[in-house]
Design a protein that fits this description.
The protein has 8 helices and 2 strands, in the order H-H-H-H-H-H-H-E-E-H. It is mainly alpha-helical and 189 residues long. Strands 1-2 form a two-stranded antiparallel ribbon. It is elongated and about 80 Å long. 20% of the residues are buried.
Length: 189
């Protein structure tokens, strides 16, 4: 009867080897010797080979990912939104304006034609300063929204947001989810 392989995963080799050493008791080899034995059992020459292979994998994994978001820029943009994820005021810095527009872009439906009235209603729901026309026009000029020349058909332009925009969208998604829950729950008045 063939044996079924059983996978074994240890998040930390040191912790695994310490537990193994306790089980072996007085017959346990020294810590480093046990670490090398475990590394060889996993197919490496020794623990240094295991460490360098893991570090190389981490470095290679990072190069394929998008560059990390600038947390300070995301934080500046996040300060422009209230606890419910609505834009409080039109930011004065262009870079923060652009990030705020990406956050609004994410609330618009993908691959769907909308009338100007619908776009205005959606944008009005996501900001507090009462100027959806400025938001709509700026989204068009930034290439986030398209419209027909007669102004009857608006569409969100599908594209990959930059790293900072993705981070802001994730943070605001959590705030908006809280807003949705508070609206859905009846008040105890």
């Amino acid at each position: 009867m063939p044996k079924t392989p059983l996978p074994l995963r240890a998040d930390d080799l040191t912790t695994f080897v310490r537990a193994l050493s306790k089980q072996l008791g007085d017959a346990s080899p020294p810590h480093l010797a046990l670490m090398n034995m475990a590394a060889r059992a996993a197919g490496y020459q020794n623990v240094q080979h295991l460490r360098s292979a893991h570090a190389a994998g981490e470095r290679l994994g990072r190069t394929t990912d998008a560059p990390p978001a600038d947390a300070r820029t995301v934080e500046r943009a996040l300060h422009q939104f209230d606890a419910a994820g609505r834009l409080i005021r039109w930011p004065s810095k262009r870079s923060v304006q652009t990030l705020a527009l990406w956050a609004l872009w994410a609330t618009l439906p993908a691959d769907q034609s909308m009338q100007e009235r619908v776009v205005n209603e959606r944008l009005a729901h996501e900001h507090l300063f009462g100027d959806p026309a400025t938001l709509r026009r700026t989204m068009i000029s930034c290439g986030l929204l398209s419209r027909r020349t007669d102004g009857t058909d608006y569409r969100r332009i599908e594209q990959k947001p930059p790293a900072e925009a993705k981070a802001l969208i994730r943070a605001l998604f959590a705030r908006r989810r809280t807003r949705a829950h508070t609206v859905a729950e009846p008040s105890d008045a």
